[in-house]
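Worked example 3 (structure in, sequence out).
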């Protein structure tokens, strides 16, 4: 009896994936990985120049851009429409757009709280609404990957009273939609990283006193002994967007070096 390799299950060639927050560290790493694996990627974000720079790195036949953030139903629908216009269909989404505002709750302006909730929860919800309509109309299932955080499970003493609840909401959005769309073959999961290198966290990777002290505190809680790089998420994203995860839905996948195990 011959043994069949399971590697074909990870094939995403020809699939079309919408990436929100595509100009960010995680979104851009995902775009490079998916395009290299043969997927069509639709890059959505608020920074048009950054989107075009990223698009220029990718095979031109596999990339399209749309200068939108999921701020309104019209924005979300426009992103999905761009994917269909460029590649004829949509197979999945990585919803990586989001923000953070840090302050003690007694000092945080309500406007900052609302900004975090709008970007992280409302934006993810609007993206799912528009993507879901398209996937349901196609009738062939699909994969939705939301970006959560270890902070959706854990509190933080540095003033995360907006961010942590927003990511907990993302986790439950994934579970709710997994239950709602399971009968239609649409899988919904959340990817939850800890600190990874980006423009916002670059200071933690430096050797100045503040960066070193913060990094050492984090590393004391990470069994694998290092902070993450954006490319650490590429394998998990291919897994979640491919048939390799065909029986996985409603889950929060922690890519955190073991942080949440301690």
């Amino acid at each position: 009896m011959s043994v069949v390799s399971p590697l074909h299950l990870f094939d995403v060639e020809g699939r079309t994936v919408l990436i929100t927050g595509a100009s960010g560290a995680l979104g851009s790493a995902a775009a490079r990985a998916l395009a290299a694996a043969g997927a069509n990627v639709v890059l959505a974000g608020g920074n048009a120049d950054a989107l075009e720079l990223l698009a220029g790195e990718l095979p031109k036949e596999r990339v399209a851009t749309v200068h939108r953030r999921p701020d309104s139903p019209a924005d979300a629908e426009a992103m999905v429409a761009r994917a269909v216009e460029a590649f004829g269909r949509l197979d999945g989404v990585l919803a990586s757009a989001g923000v953070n505002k840090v302050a003690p709750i007694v000092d945080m302006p309500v406007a900052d709280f609302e900004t975090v909730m709008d970007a992280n929860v409302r934006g993810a919800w609007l993206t799912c609404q528009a993507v879901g309509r398209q996937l349901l109309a196609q009738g062939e299932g699909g994969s939705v990957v939301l970006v959560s955080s270890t902070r959706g499970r854990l509190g933080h003493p540095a003033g995360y009273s907006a961010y942590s609840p927003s990511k907990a909401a993302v986790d439950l959005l994934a579970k709710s939609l997994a239950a709602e769309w399971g009968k239609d073959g649409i899988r919904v999961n959340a990817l939850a990283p800890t600190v990874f290198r980006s423009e916002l966290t670059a200071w933690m990777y430096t050797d100045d006193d503040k960066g070193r002290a913060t990094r050492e505190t984090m590393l004391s809680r990470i069994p694998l002994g290092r902070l993450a790089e954006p490319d650490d998420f590429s394998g998990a994203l291919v897994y979640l967007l491919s048939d390799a995860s065909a029986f996985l839905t409603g889950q929060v996948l922690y890519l955190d070096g073991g942080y949440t195990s301690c």
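Notes: The domain at 9-193+230-252 is CATH 3.40.50.720 (Rossmann fold). The chain has a mean pLDDT of 95.
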